[in-house]
Design brief:
Elements: H1 3-21, E1 33-38, E2 47-52, H2 66-85, E3 88-94, E4 103-112, H3 117-125, H4 143-155, E5 159-162, H5 166-184, H6 187-196, E6 240-245, H7 251-270, E7 274-278, H8 280-283, H9 285-295, E8 299-306, H10 319-322, E9 323-324, H11 326-331
Parallel strand pairs: 1-9
Antiparallel strand pairs: 1-2, 2-4, 3-4, 5-6, 6-8, 7-8
């Protein structure tokens, strides 16, 4: 194959991988990432830089960009996965520039990779995965599926604590309720949240079609109020809750948590499970610390997991808004 054909082929792979990475989850679907594609030079491989887009960090809800870095980590894992199933090994360097902590990672296409059937299944799930804010069935998640989720987090250097003891489940449910109540009394948070909820045609945020229905007052776990006009309905009586943690809470730990989150979510999708992230206790410093004390490690997110009816995906911004260098890749 001529050299220019090889470059064009690789450029198309990079473009497709960035499109897949943009399907990653993020708080309020803010999509706080920017990609820069760099064609191969005479002494360098193709590479993709992933940066935190500060203009899309929620200043009130996420002042330290904790959740934004988790979203970027989820996008990074998806980028790596997409490259892998395209036959490329993606060598990711986290926080490669000590002077620029908003440069999340640099991923170099470093040789060939033979994708496994499991990697292909996860990559297919990228386009089906979505946050499910609807009621789940009162059907327990079987042990093999629970094990698969725990292993998915561990593979990316994190831990998924399944809350199987009633005391732990009750404690975390109380923290979610407490945080949700505090947030609902914060006018600045409410104003910021409304910016991202209910709109259409913007390519970001949570549209009304994805907001789900509010839970009835007797529901154990409080979901975020997304101003849905629908009548409250009963949710599952005993949900499976899980807390995602890492050993530390540095920027790198938060990026690792994001990679683990996406691997867990895609694994859940492959297993036929629905997931609803619950970030309220992470958004309030006191409840975040208390949540970490319950599980014994820095906590990054609570997940509600179960079997549910299909929901809808949220929109994504066009590639030319989230990436640069793709035109050069296409012409190479």
């Amino acid at each position: 194959m001529p050299a220019d054909s090889t470059a064009t082929s690789t450029g198309a792979v990079v473009r497709a991988a960035i499109a897949a990475a943009a399907r990653a989850p993020s708080s309020f679907n803010a999509q706080p990432w920017h990609f820069t594609a760099h064609p191969a030079g005479s002494a360098d491989q193709h590479r993709v830089d992933l940066a935190l887009d500060r203009s899309r960090v929620l200043a009130v809800t996420d002042p330290d960009a904790h959740q934004a870095r988790i979203g970027c980590g989820a996008a990074l894992y998806t980028l790596r996965l997409s490259l892998a199933v395209s036959g490329h090994r993606g060598d990711a360097a986290l926080l490669p520039d000590p002077a620029d902590h908003d440069l999340i990672a640099t991923v170099r296409l470093d040789g060939k990779h033979r994708a496994t059937p499991h990697e292909r299944a996860l990559a297919t799930a990228v386009w089906r995965r979505h946050t499910n804010r609807r009621p789940f069935l009162d059907r327990p998640v079987p042990p093999p599926a629970r094990t698969a989720l725990v292993r998915a987090a561990a593979a990316e250097g994190a831990r998924l604590h399944l809350l199987e003891r009633p005391t732990d489940l009750g404690a975390v449910a109380d923290l979610i309720r407490r945080a949700d109540n505090l947030l609902s009394q914060n006018p600045a948070h409410l104003t910021e949240a409304r910016r991202w909820v209910g709109g259409t045609g913007h390519g970001d945020g949570v549209p009304a079609t994805a907001a789900g229905r509010p839970p009835s007052p007797d529901t154990l776990v409080v979901l975020r109020d997304l101003d849905s006009p629908a009548t409250p309905v009963p949710f599952e009586r005993l949900p499976l809750l899980a807390v995602l943690t890492t050993v530390g809470d540095s920027d790198g730990d938060q990026i690792a948590a994001g990679q683990a989150l996406q691997r867990v979510l895609l694994t859940a999708c492959v297993e036929g499970l629905a997931v609803s992230p619950l970030s309220q206790p992470i958004e309030v410093p006191t409840t975040r610390r208390a949540l970490g004390e319950v599980v014994g490690a820095p906590a990054h997110l609570v997940l509600r997991i179960g079997y549910g009816h299909a929901g809808v995906t949220t929109p994504r911004r066009p590639l030319d808004e989230i990436a640069t260098g793709l035109a050069e890749e296409k012409r190479a």
